[in-house]
């Protein structure tokens, strides 16, 4: 191509030191025209004394967008081939061009800052298209790298999960917990940071209580109560966010005189909060469930129970199921599993739904969730819990994969 030939000729004639630094900066220019005035003839006046005059095309096209980088390449070659233009004058050309371009960007940024947000976004979008024009082959390479990395990463994650589930689970939880707040710190999204901090402080306290030895008799109820509340709140936020998005897509927001962008942003925000905190709360609940049940002694993740389960004792919280001669006792509903073991309904719900367990806490026999929770209002909770498992990959591992792809593209010089 003509531009490529100009670049090659310029590098040979001028040398890399003078040319490359200028072109590296000039290539970021996407539209507009810069004119050098009052030169009074190239042969007599150095370009270092040039003055800049600026012309803008707000729509990015105008009479036809002139890419100043291409003009500069051709101009550098032309000047070198002219008579009576020495090396000193040529070096001044690059400096003057950069000076003028710096003034151009300063003024351009001032003009953009005065525009409405929608118009400013459109101009920035146009800049991006102009910057990457002619990079189709490079973009195809980047797409292939992305697809290959996704496939390889998926295989690695599946194998890791199958062979070392505990370490995979802990790494996923750590990524779920820290990666989103890292992005929020980078971009200054303070609202999420405040909510995340409150959730983290309370959850850290609950996890601390669950890991104490010996465990307090009230700790299991406290743990399950907190995570069940978080589960219900996240479920509610997810439903409201989903309905808000659907209402916006159907145009129902106009009935309430709400702008589509406001309604959509509100729905997506609630949907993200509900899904994210629902997943993180479930993962922490599972960790606390294993820890508490193991310490109580009626459950071990891999082996036999540490002690015999009394028929009148709940194998999850360790408290009696039917309390006699106690007027202050709270009478709770019980739930009997297929293996004939009885638990507090509140405890077994926390164990199965919140803690993601589908086996008996004592004998590990598989629990029939449909039989346990026959109400149609309970089944959506179970389906929603399965949905949260899919979010885990997108939040914990997808950002890491994208960063890896960007690193590969950078090392190969792809943009």
TrEMBL record:
Keywords: Membrane, Metal-binding, Transmembrane, Transmembrane helix, Zinc, Zinc-finger
Domain of life: Eukaryota
InterPro entries, per the entry: RNF121/RNF175, Znf_RING, Znf_RING/FYVE/PHD
An annotated GO cellular component: endoplasmic reticulum membrane
SUPFAM superfamilies noted in UniProt: RING/U-box
Main location group: membrane
An example molecular function term from Gene Ontology annotations: ubiquitin protein ligase activity
GO BP annotation list: ERAD pathway
Originating species: Magallana gigas
Protein name per UniProt: Uncharacterized protein
Taxonomic lineage: Eukaryota, Metazoa, Spiralia, Lophotrochozoa, Mollusca
Record membrane topology: Multi-pass membrane protein
Protein localization: Membrane
């Amino acid at each position: 191509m003509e531009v490529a030939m100009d670049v090659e000729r310029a590098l040979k004639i001028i040398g890399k030191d003078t040319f490359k630094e200028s072109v590296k900066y000039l290539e970021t220019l996407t539209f507009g025209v810069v004119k050098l005035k009052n030169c009074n003839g190239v042969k007599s006046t150095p370009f270092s004394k040039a003055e800049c005059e600026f012309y803008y095309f707000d729509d990015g096209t105008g009479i036809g967008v002139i890419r100043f980088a291409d003009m500069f390449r051709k101009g550098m070659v032309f000047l070198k081939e002219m008579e009576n233009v020495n090396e000193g004058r040529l070096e001044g050309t690059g400096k003057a061009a950069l000076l003028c371009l710096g003034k151009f960007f300063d003024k351009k940024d001032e003009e953009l800052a005065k525009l409405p947000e929608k118009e400013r976004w459109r101009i920035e979008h146009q800049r991006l298209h102009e910057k990457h024009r002619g990079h189709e082959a490079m973009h195809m390479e980047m797409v292939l790298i992305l697809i290959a990395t996704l496939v390889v990463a998926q295989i690695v994650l599946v194998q890791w999960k199958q062979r070392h589930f505990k370490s995979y689970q802990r790494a996923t939880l750590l990524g779920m917990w820290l990666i989103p707040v890292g992005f929020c710190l980078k971009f200054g999204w303070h609202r999420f940071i405040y909510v995340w901090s409150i959730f983290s402080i309370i959850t850290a306290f609950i996890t601390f209580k669950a890991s104490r030895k010996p465990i307090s008799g009230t700790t299991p109820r406290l743990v399950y109560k907190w995570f069940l509340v978080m589960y219900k709140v996240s479920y509610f936020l997810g439903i409201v966010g989903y309905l808000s998005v659907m209402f916006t897509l159907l145009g129902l927001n106009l009935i309430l005189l709400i702008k589509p962008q406001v309604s959509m942003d509100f729905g997506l925000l609630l949907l993200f909060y509900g899904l994210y905190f629902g997943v993180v709360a479930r993962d922490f609940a599972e960790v606390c469930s294993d820890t508490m049940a193991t310490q109580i002694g009626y459950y071990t993740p891999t082996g036999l129970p540490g002690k015999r389960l009394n028929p009148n004792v709940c194998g999850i919280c360790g408290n009696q199921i039917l309390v006699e001669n106690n007027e202050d006792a709270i009478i709770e509903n019980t739930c009997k599993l297929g293996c004939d073991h009885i638990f507090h309904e509140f405890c077994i719900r926390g164990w199965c739904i919140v803690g993601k367990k589908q086996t008996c806490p004592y004998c590990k026999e598989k629990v029939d969730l449909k039989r346990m929770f026959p109400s149609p209002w309970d089944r959506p909770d179970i389906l929603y819990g399965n949905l949260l498992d899919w979010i885990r990959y997108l939040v914990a591992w997808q950002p890491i994969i994208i960063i890896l792809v960007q690193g590969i593209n950078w090392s190969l010089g792809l943009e």
